[in-house]
Amino acid sequence: MIQAQQIVSKATLEAVRWSGPASGPSAQRGKSIAFVAEDLRNGGIVGVAQGAREAASAMGWTLKIFDGGGSVVGRAKAFADALAAKPDGLVLCGSDALENNAALTLFARQSVPVVGWHAGAQPGPIRGTQVAMNVTTDPLEVARLTAMAAVAQSNGHAGVVILTDSKYSIATAKAKAMESVILACQECTLLEVRDVAISESGEKMPVITKELLRRYGKRWTHTLAINDIYFDYSIATLTSAGIPSDAISLLSAGDGSASAFLRIHAKTYQTVTVAEPLNLHGWQVVDELNRLFAGQPVSGFVAPIHLVNADNIAFDGGKNFQYDPDNGYRDIYRHLWNP
Description:
With 339 residues, this protein is of the alpha/beta class.
């Protein structure tokens, strides 16, 4: 319990100074980038896309976004359209690299370097695929921190439901990490791990929320989710059921969406999001591609994790409903590219 409180307290501090790359190649001019997004309904993916647009503009590149819409058919079309655009580089955003390796191989045949965001369960190169760098915070660290926040909030007596999407290896890894923290808490109860496709959360979460309320009642005190998006579609059900906003605590292991920030600020059910620096990650994917274009190794930078709650939400971009570290990363990257 005390250890969980200490870890959570450390992760809520304001953004520390820049710990990313201090050197790198100057801008490789005139490149065109294809950005294949798993689903632009996902706030995390949108945040990375916005950052990548900013960075591509600073680099003097063109960037075109292809939306997979969260479906197999949509993803296949996005890959086909991206390949037809004959890009110099590819960003795979939010889709599992191993699952889509056949499509990525087609880009490799055209000597197109690939950088991913949330394309696998760990930061770094993804073995067995074309992804030279998977940009992400450490998802297992994020998941453990989120679960520890629930333990700390409940003084070690949380009744927990975990929401995940087994379609993604990163989501499965997060769910298992959260589960292990709750099971290690002697007086906590793991009520259920529920597999809900992110792409179907809009239609399914209202029904699932009603079902969980019926099944567990007051024993259900905390929900841990692998993404904020589930909570977008459960709040109305909790409200209409007359559940007080402090009776169930919603905690998300990513990605720090605008709606999550609004809920935390308003103290409406959601208390925590372990927000990723989405805009910064967009700049990083562009920097990693630039290194590959220059024939240099990727930076391998992994941003520190940051837990957003009501106490620190006003800092580091929180007033704009996002986590955007106030560490000067834009100017630092610009200086690397244009020394």
